[in-house]
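dumping this here before i forget
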Amino acid sequence: MSQPEKVLNHLEQIPFEKPSDIIIRQVRQLIRSGVLKPGDRLPAERDLVNRFRVGRSHIREALKKLEFYGIVETRPQNGTFVASLGVRSLEGLISNVLNLEKEDFHALLETRMMLETHGAELAATRATDEQIKEIEALQNSFREKVSSNQDGLDEDLAIHLKIAECSNNSVLQSLITLITPDIIRQSRKWNTCRDGRQIEALDEHNAIVEAIRRHDAKAAGKAMNAHLERTIEISDLVSQSS
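structure:
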């Protein structure tokens, strides 16, 4: 490795902060300082636009994110209000929301492993014969892509989403679905399916599908955990070498 490359490896990217995140940080500071209290009403959207001097879309993005995580609530005809939670809870929630914006592929995959391991166990217990056939059909589609040396990431993730669906736990399924777009984006960014990884993943999928077919929850969870542990290992190696 040349000297300039060594220097580059020690430099960090300058973080880009979106206007919506800056707005959220200011809301957190207002809550921390006591200017905004639980139950207080926020200024009208048009007033926030004028004050922040940013587009309406940035204001709406910030408010939508705060509302999604239960930090504020919108009351029709009345406006947007700070949730009736303790100040410390509100501060903690906002900090977590802001940290979610950071690109941490390893943490994302760790979370995925915890969710999907349990999802596979539930699927093995709850999946109907028809649902198992659907999982097998998706596995066959993935096998065809791998055999023809094509990118099978979409087919790969479709299997995982179907297994989550077969858990028959709507909350678990929603959480897995929520993180899937980031997994797709990061996987393509780091090209994690290179160097024969798809062939390896195909064999790992076979073990998962076979365990679900046998309705063996323990084996399904173990196979899914091993598959995603290997995915994390490969992703860490790829990111470190890039």
